[in-house]
TrEMBL record:
PROSITE patterns: AMP_BINDING. This is AMP-binding protein. SUPFAM superfamilies: Acetyl-CoA synthetase-like. InterPro entries: AMP-bd_C_sf, AMP-binding_CS, AMP-dep_synth/lig_dom, ANL_N_sf. The keyword Disulfide bond does not apply. It comes from Pseudomonas fontis. Residues 32-376 form the AMP-dependent synthetase/ligase domain. Transmembrane segments: none annotated. The lineage of its organism: Bacteria, Pseudomonadati, Pseudomonadota, Gammaproteobacteria, Pseudomonadales. The keyword Ligase applies. Keywords: Ligase.
Length: 524
C-alpha cells in the first residue's frame, strides 16, 4: 500500500526555498541578532535572541582558536540549559558536527561513543569529568557560566566566519537510543532539519513567535532536540529548558512558572501529570503533544476528561529527524497514530517487499525531505535501512480507508510461541480497551533455555491480586491460548530507559527471571 498526502503550500515553499549553501546557526540565530525577544528561559535564566547571538559568536571563535576543524565531532554532554544551546549552535556556526549526548552516561557508554565518534573536543559537566578522563580535549562547563559571559563585551562578540555548507551536507550527528543494539550515529543535513521545521513545526502544528514551547524530553533525544533547539528558533518562539531530570513535581512547577503554550512529552509524563492530579488551571496549553512511545487510548480518554486541549499523538524516528505522522490537528482517534505529514510518502510492505492491502499489517517505509544522510560509519546497516530514497522504519503499521495509521509495534518486538507470531502491542491495546483504568500494560517475551512465552506487566489502582484475576479472566475470554501470558506481574514501577521510554529490554530480563524461577520450582 502506497500512502501519500498532497503537499501543502508550506511544504512546497520549503522545498523551493532551500538555499544551495546554508549555515544553520546563521539561519536560526544570527538572523535574529537584533531581537530583544526571549529565545530561551528556564529556572534561573532568561536569554534574548540578541544575547544568544553574542554568546554563539563568542563560543564559535573560541572553538576555532582551539583548532577544531570543519566536520570534526564535538561531543556535548550537558544538562539542558543555555550552555548546551550556546555550545550546540557555536559548533554549527564554525562547521563542526555537534553530537548532543545524555550527560548521565555511564563509563561503558562513554567508551563506546568515544571510539565510534572519535571527537576533537568533549564538553562535559564538572561532576562527570572523571568519567570522561580518557576523552580527547575535555572541557568542563558549569551551569550558569554563559550568563556570566554577558556581563562585559568582547571582540569575539562580532565573530562572523560562519561556515556555509551544501544544504545536503552533514551538519550534526544524533545517536539513537540503542533500544535495538549499540547506539548508531545518524547524520543529518541542514535540508533535513529545515524540512522538519517547515513541514511539521510550522505547516502541521502551526508554531509561531508567540508560543512558549516546553519539551520534557531532553535535547539529547532526537524528539527533544527538535522541540527545544530547532522549532522555537525557526519561528522566533521561546523555548523553556530545564536541566533537572523530570518528575511530576518538577514538570508541574515548570508549567506553573513558565506557562508554556505548547507541551511536548512522552506518554509516561502525561500519565504522571494525571496521577499527580495537576490542576487544570495550572495549564496554559493550546497544544499537548505525545511521542517517543505508543500513546495508550485510555490515556487519551483520561486526559480528555480532565484537561483541554486534547492530547495528540505522533510517531517519528531519529533517521527521519522527528515526527512523520500525527493525529494533529484533525485525525484524533484513540488507538490510531494519525496521518502522514502532507507531502510525505509511505509504503506498507510484507516480508517480500510487496505492498499490503488496506487494513493489513506490514513494515512501514517512508520517503520524506527530512530523511537523514545516513549512518555514521555503518555502511552495511545504512544499505539495509536506506534504499532507493526510502527509509525502512522497522515498525509495523496498518492503514484504514480514511488514511489513519495504526501502530502494531516494532518488527523486532514480535516473538514466536509454538511457531506462531505474537505482536505485543496488539495484545496491550486490546487489554487497555477492555480495562480503561490501567496505568501501564506491557507484554514481552520471557525466555528459558527451552522456549519463549508471553509475560505481562500491568499496573492499576487497587489490590494486585484483584488486578491479576481480572486480567486473567479477560485474556481467557478474548485471546487464543498461545497469546495468553503465562505470568502476570504487578511491579511497583515500570523501568524507563535514558529517554524516558518504557524499557522493554529491562522488562524482558525480568520476564526471563520470572520464567526461570518458575521452571526451577517445577523442577523441584
Amino acid at each position: 500500500m502506497l500512502i501519500s498526502t498532497e503537499p501543502t503550500a508550506a511544504a512546497d515553499r520549503a522545498l523551493a526555498e532551500y538555499p544551495a549553501r546554508v549555515n544553520l546557526a546563521e539561519r536560526l540565530v544570527a538572523s535574529r541578532r537584533d531581537s530583544q525577544r526571549t529565545s530561551f528561559r528556564g529556572p534561573g535564566f532568561q536569554l534574548t535572541f540578541q544575547q544568544l547571538d553574542r554568546l554563539v559568536r563568542r563560543q564559535a571563535a573560541g572553538l576555532c582558536r582551539q583548532g577544531v576543524a570543519r566536520d570534526e565531532r564535538i561531543l556535548i554532554a550537558l544538562d539542558d540549559g543555555p550552555e548546551l544551546a550556546v555550545m550546540f549552535f557555536a559548533a554549527l556556526a564554525m562547521g563542526a558536527l555537534p553530537v548532543v549526548l545524555n550527560p548521565r552516561l555511564d563509563a561503558a557508554a562513554i567508551a563506546h561513543l568515544l571510539a565510534d565518534a572519535r571527537p576533537a573536543l568533549c564538553i562535559v559537566q564538572p561532576a562527570q569529568a572523571e568519567l570522561w578522563a580518557a576523552a580527547p580535549g575535555v572541557n568542563t562547563l558549569d551551569a550558569g557560566a554563559c550568563m556570566g559571559w554577558l556581563e562585559a563585551s568582547h571582540p569575539d562578540d562580532l565573530w562572523c566566519e560562519f561556515t556555509e555548507k551544501p544544504a545536503q551536507a552533514p551538519v550534526l550527528i544524533q545517536y539513537t537510543s540503542g533500544s535495538t543494539g549499540q547506539p548508531k550515529g545518524v547524520i543529518h543535513s541542514a535540508r533535513s532539519l529545515l524540512a522538519c521545521c517547515e513541514d511539521f513545526a510550522v505547516g502541521q502544528l502551526g508554531l509561531n513567535e508567540h508560543d512558549v514551547v516546553y519539551s520534557v524530553p531532553k535535547a539529547f533525544f532526537g524528539y527533544g532536540m527538535g522541540n527545544s533547539l530547532f522549532f522555537p528558533l525557526y519561528v522566533g518562539a521561546c523555548a523553556v529548558m530545564d536541566g533537572a531530570w523530570p518528575s511530576a513535581e518538577r514538570v508541574r512547577a515548570v508549567l506553573r512558572e513558565h506557562r508554556p503554550t505548547v507541551l511536548f512529552a512522552v506518554p509516561a509524563v502525561y500519565g504522571m501529570l494525571l496521577e499527580d492530579a495537576v490542576e487544570p488551571q495550572a495549564l496554559n496549553l493550546r497544544l499537548a503533544f505525545s511521542a517517543g512511545a505508543p500513546l495508550p487510548a485510555n490515556l487519551i480518554r483520561r486526559w480528555q476528561q480532565r484537561y483541554r486541549p486534547n492530547l495528540h499523538d505522533g510517531i517519528g524516528s531519529t533517521e527521519l529527524c522527528h515526527i512523520f505522522a500525527t493525529s494533529y490537528p484533525d485525525a484524533l482517534q484513540p488507538g490510531k497514530v494519525g496521518r502522514m505529514l502532507p507531502g510525505w510518502h509511505a509504503r506498507i510492505v510484507d516480508a517480500a517487499g510487496n505492498d499490503v492491502a488496506t487494513g493489513e499489517s506490514g513494515v512501514l517505509l517512508v520517503k520524506a525531505p527530512s530523511m537523514a544522510v545516513g549512518y555514521w560509519e555503518r555502511p552495511e546497516q545504512q544499505a539495509a535501512r536506506f534504499k532507493a530514497g526510502w527509509y525502512c522504519t522497522g515498525d509495523l503499521f496498518s492503514q484504514d480507508p480514511q488514511g489513519l495509521l495504526t501502530f502494531h509495534g516494532r518488527e523486532d518486538d514480535r516473538f514466536k510461541v509454538f511457531g506462531r507470531w505474537v505482536a505485543p502491542v496488539e495484545i496491550e491495546n486490546l487489554l487497555i480497551s477492555l480495562m480503561p483504568d490501567l496505568r501501564d500494560c506491557y507484554l514481552v517475551a520471557g525466555c528459558t533455555d527451552e522456549e519463549c512465552r508471553p509475560v505481562l506487566f500491568v499496573r492499576a489502582n487497587g489490590a494486585a491480586d484483584d488486578l491479576v484475576q481480572q486480567v486473567e479472566t479477560l485474556m481467557h475470554a478474548h485471546l487464543e491460548s498461545y497469546k495468553r501470558p503465562v505470568h502476570i506481574a504487578v511491579p511497583s514501577e515500570i523501568p524507563l530507559n535514558r529517554n524516558g521510554k518504557p524499557d522493554r529490554k529491562a522488562l524482558a530480563r525480568l520476564a526471563d527471571q520470572l520464567l526461570r524461577g518458575a521452571a526451577e520450582v517445577r523442577a523441584c
